[in-house]
Amino acid sequence: MLTSLIAGFASGETAFALRRAKRAGIAYVAAGIAGLCGLGFLVGAAYVWAARNWGEIEAAVGFGLGFLALAGIILAVHSIAARSRAREDKQRRSSELAALGMTAAAAIVPTLLRSKGGIGALLGPLVALVAYAIYRENSGPGNGDDVSGD
Predict the structure, then answer these.
(1) Tens of pLDDT, residues 50-62
(2) How far apart are CA 141 and CA 150, in angstroms?
(3) d(Cα 13, Cα 22) in Å, to the nearest integer?
């Protein structure tokens, strides 16, 4: 638990999460305001209709429905943008973890070289690490390797 928290701070994930929360909050407040304006116009339209029975009601209903449509558009745009940002964040985290793994592997090489096994103890994991790095380099995004369906 503590290590994942520290890793989150180290990779800047906390700052990204705060930015996402701020964007979501702004979008929901804007949609809420637009929705409340729509409801206000609908209530005003109902009042005008009740007061005059027929007349300039079309304008008030039009404003009310317009603000409600605006709220729906704001929420739809935010939802689409949030999904896109989530995909980008997932790809960024993946590349950061790969870089972190490579750094950790490079940091452990001197220790393995000094161990009793020497080159023999290093050769197996090093070959596997190089093979994996070559595989990752050759299987870039967009070639059908992603099984998550995103």
Answers:
(1) 566 655 666 667 6
(2) 12
(3) 14
Name the range with the highest mean pLDDT among 10-19, 40-49, 66-75: 66-75
Dist. CA 134–CA 29, nearest whole Å:
47
Assigned token pair, 26: 């702004």
CA proximity to 17, closest of 4, 29, 30, 3: 4
Which DSSP string corresponds to 13-53?
HHHHHHHHHHHHHHHHHHHHHHHHHHHHHHHHHHHHHHHHS
Quick one: pLDDT band at residue 98, thresholds 50, 70, 90?
A: confident
Output the six-digit token pair for 23.
């964007």
* pLDDT tens for each residue of 21-61: 889 899 999 999 999 999 888 878 776 775 666 556 666 67
Alpha-carbon dihedral of residues 25, 29, 32, 37, nearest 10 degrees? -170
- Give the domain ranges of the chain: 12-138
